[in-house]
Amino acid sequence: GAVVSQHPSRVICKSGTSVKIECRSLDFQATTMFWYRQFPKQSLMLMATSNEGSKATYEQGVEKDKFLINHASLTLSTLTVTSAHPEDSSFYICSARTSGGSRDNEQFFGPGTRLTVL
Amino acid sequence: QKEVEQDPGPLSVPEGAIVSLNCTYSNSAFQYFMWYRQYSRKGPELLMYTYSSGNKEDGRFTAQVDKSSKYISLFIRDSQPSDSATYLCAMGPPGQNFVFGPGTRLSVLP
């Protein structure tokens, strides 16, 4: 399958700081990328959908000023958690969807980033 | 009614058993159907991808889609302890975001 990387895999920060998470599609171009968060033993929660070159579409209840998403190129999307607080501690997973070619419309996930805010 | 329903489990089976995982859905426009496996503290891994109806087999895994019943299944033959994970179904119509089931937690006991 196609490869999606995420960096960092783990981050611990103090309350009030901002954290940036990078998501890259390594062997395909992704016009659409997604950001999810997942609490322990719970299902994926879609936070936002980003399309390259345009503003992200946020799900209801997700603060767009707190979770800044930038999809700067066809292989890179970033999520910045601004002024993080302990309740933002979670597992953040990005995903990228293929378009065109023999593997059209398949969605691949990154390995996730575990954020702990102290 | 949720768009995608999936029994969360947990489901425990002995090693070597055939596992059947299922999802039902309500949107008749769904054309893409996927199964993902997620190990604890890891991102989901795409296992099976099906467009429209039919069966697809890959090693010990078989995916079935029954659009008339709005029902999809994933079968795992000769299950192994390493198959212990959460299995998520996902589906969607062309051009729109996929909808994910909540996942079924599977434990294969040695």
The largest inter-chain interface, given as chain pair and residues per side, is: A-B, 21 and 20 residues
Class inferred from helices and paired strands of chain B:
mainly beta
What's the helical proportion of residues of chain B? Answer: under 10%
Question: What's the total helix number of chain A?
Answer: 0
Order of helices and strands of chain A: EEEEEEEEEEE
- Helix tally of chain B equals 0
Work out the radius of gyration of chain B. Answer: 13 Å
Strand elements of chain A, count: 11
Helix/strand/pairing class of chain A, anyone?
A: mainly beta
**Fraction in beta strands of chain B:** over 45%
Poorly predicted spans of chain A: none
What's the N-to-C terminus distance of chain A? 36 Å
Percentage of residues in strands of chain A? over 45%
Mean pLDDT of chain A: 92
Mean pLDDT of chain B: 94
* Largest sheet data of chain A: 7 strands, mixed
Quick one: overall form of chain A? globular
Portion of residues within helices of chain A: under 10%
Q: State the order of secondary-structure elements of chain B, H for helix, E for strand.
A: EEEEEEEEEEE
Structure description:
Chain A is 0% helix and 51% strand. With 118 residues, chain A is an all-beta fold. In chain A, the strands form two sheets. In chain A, strands 2, 4, 5, 6, 9, 10 and 11 form a seven-stranded mixed sheet that branches. In chain A, strands 1-3-8-7 form a four-stranded antiparallel sheet, with no helix packed on it. Chain A has strands at 4-7, 10-13, 19-25, 32-38, 45-51, 57-58, 67-73, 76-81, 90-97, 107-109, 113-117. Chain A contains no helices and eleven strands. Chain B is mainly beta and 110 residues long. Helix content of chain B is 0%, strand content 55%. Chain B has strands at 4-5, 11-14, 19-25, 32-38, 45-51, 54-58, 61-66, 71-76, 85-92, 99-100, 104-109. In chain B, the strands form two sheets. In chain B, strands 2, 4, 5, 9, 10 and 11 form a six-stranded mixed sheet that branches. Chain B has a five-stranded antiparallel sheet with strand order 1-3-8-7-6, with no helix packed on it. In chain B, a hairpin with a 4-residue loop joins strand 7 (61-66) and strand 8. Chain B is globular. At the A-B interface, strand 9 and strand 10 of A face strand 4 and strand 5 of B.
